[in-house]
């Protein structure tokens, strides 16, 4: 069985958003603070106050830092935010920082704030998109832009941002505001249904700034598991005999090579965003052996991915390896890295609708 080279992100993924990881040493804290001033202060401010340049958010806002932002910010630092001036700093894509340095910078931001994280649900928020559009125009457009392009506030029409944040994260920001910024709290101004409506409206913009109604997709059926079944196999050059890079996977997909993609996250995250053609098989699936007969046993490449960015996919990789599968790999950057780097994704399909119909 091939041994996985467990990576910094996989080891630290849970610790980075909790207090389980030991505090940074004085030397580590000083180095992380120096990296912040060198790479981040130009836009986020020397005191993490935000909005110094390019609508960069405040990184000292209690509301932001408590609402599960530390994991997304780690990916933003690593791979950048496509569609914004935020560049990627991870050395694997040509940046100046290692995974360990980025993790410690993230941890430093947490320690500087001293805030405990609020554990938000990953379940989708249901709301009236039409009502949310009207509230957005009345309350939000002046700062965030009529089309979500950003003005005094953050650009909310960024598909990458919307793909990497949960509904609960968006809702928490609307309800609680962003302290130390001009973003007020709307919890005392809007009722719960109205906040849900604005959240649903923002989520409907994930594929473009037009009113759309989300439609849940059905996962691929067994006969659709293998993509491009009549095509040649990919010619992956795996890292550490286990990992495929996003650029290599994308090239194989563009070349329509034969393969199977496994999304090892929970199913509602697959609905939120996934690589087209991926089959949702969560890593914790109890009766994994029952799935084996449905998987290709003819040497077809099976590539697994997750969000953290590799821990769940590595778990499935090991299960497949234990059952004799040979041509298996884990997407190195995970879905968040894939999205952040601008590679295409699919979501629960959306269709344009008449706002008046939504309100009936």
Architecture overview:
- By secondary structure, this protein is an alpha/beta fold.
- It has three domains: 8-113, Cytochrome c-like domain (Cytochrome Bc1 Complex, Chain D, domain 2, Orthogonal Bundle), CATH 1.10.760.10; 129-210, Orthogonal Bundle (Cytochrome Bc1 Complex, Chain D, domain 2), CATH 1.10.760; 222-340, 3-Layer(aba) Sandwich (Oxidized Rhodanese, domain 1).
- Helices cover 38% and strands 6% of the residues.
- Strands 2-6-5-3-4 form a five-stranded parallel β-sheet.
- Strand 3 (260-263), helix 13 and strand 4 form a beta-alpha-beta unit.
- Helix 2 packs across helix 6 and helix 7 (129-139) crosses helix 11 (192-203).
- It is globular and about 60 Å long.
- The chain starts with 7 loop residues before the first helix and ends with a helix.
Sheet with the most strands, sense and barrel status: 5 strands, parallel
Number of DSSP strands? Answer: 7
Radius of gyration, whole Å: 21 Å
Residue stretches low in confidence (pLDDT < 50, at least 5 long) are: 5-19, 350-360
Strand residue percentage: 5-15%
Query: How would you spell out the order of helices and strands?
Result: HHHHHHHHHHHEEHEHEHEHEHEH
Give a summary of the structure in a few sentences.
This protein is of the alpha/beta class and 360 residues long. The protein has helices spanning 8-12, 26-39, 41-44, 62-66, 70-79, 99-113, 129-139, 141-144, 159-164, 167-176, 192-203, 246-254, 267-272, 288-291, 311-322, 334-340, 355-358; strands at residues 212-214, 243-244, 260-263, 279-280, 302-305, 328-331, 350-352. The protein folds into three domains: 8-113, Cytochrome c-like domain (Cytochrome Bc1 Complex, Chain D, domain 2, Orthogonal Bundle); 129-210, Cytochrome Bc1 Complex, Chain D, domain 2; 222-340, Oxidized Rhodanese, domain 1 (3-Layer(aba) Sandwich), CATH 3.40.250.10.
């Amino acid at each position: 069985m091939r041994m996985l080279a467990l990576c910094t992100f996989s080891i630290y993924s849970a610790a980075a958003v909790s207090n389980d990881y030991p505090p940074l040493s004085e030397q580590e804290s000083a180095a992380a603070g120096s990296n912040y001033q060198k790479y981040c202060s130009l836009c986020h401010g020397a005191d993490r106050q935000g909005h110094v340049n390019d609508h960069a958010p405040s990184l000292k806002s209690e509301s932001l830092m408590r609402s599960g932002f530390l994991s997304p910010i780690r990916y933003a630092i690593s791979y950048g935010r496509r569609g914004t001036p935020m560049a990627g700093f991870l050395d694997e894509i040509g940046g100046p920082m290692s995974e360990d340095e980025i993790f410690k910078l993230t941890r430093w931001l947490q320690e500087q704030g001293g805030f405990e994280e609020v554990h938000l649900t990953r379940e989708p928020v249901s709301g009236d998109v039409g009502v949310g559009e009207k509230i957005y125009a009345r309350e939000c457009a002046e700062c965030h832009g009529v089309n979500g392009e950003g003005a005094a506030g953050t650009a909310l029409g960024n598909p990458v941002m919307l793909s990497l944040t949960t509904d609960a994260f968006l809702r928490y920001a609307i309800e609680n505001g962003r302290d130390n910024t001009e973003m007020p709290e709307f919890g005392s101004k809007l009722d719960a249904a109205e906040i849900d409506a604005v959240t649903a409206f923002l989520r409907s913009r994930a594929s473009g700034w037009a009113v759309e109604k989300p439609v849940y997709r059905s996962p691929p059926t067994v006969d659709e598991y293998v993509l491009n079944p009549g095509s040649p196999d990919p010619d992956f050059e795996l890292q550490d005999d286990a990992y495929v890079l996003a650029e290599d996977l994308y090239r194989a997909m563009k070349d329509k090579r034969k393969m199977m993609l496994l999304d090892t996250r929970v199913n509602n995250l697959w609905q939120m965003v996934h690589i087209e053609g991926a089959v949702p098989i969560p890593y914790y699936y109890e009766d994994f052996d029952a799935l084996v007969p449905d998987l290709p046993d003819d040497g077809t490449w099976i590539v697994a991915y997750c969000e953290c960015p590799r821990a769940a996919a590595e778990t499935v990789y090991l299960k497949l390896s234990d059952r004799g599968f040979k041509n298996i790999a884990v997407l190195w950057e995970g879905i968040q890295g894939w999205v952040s780097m601008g590679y295409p994704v699919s979501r629960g399909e959306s269709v344009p609708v008449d706002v008046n119909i939504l309100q009936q």
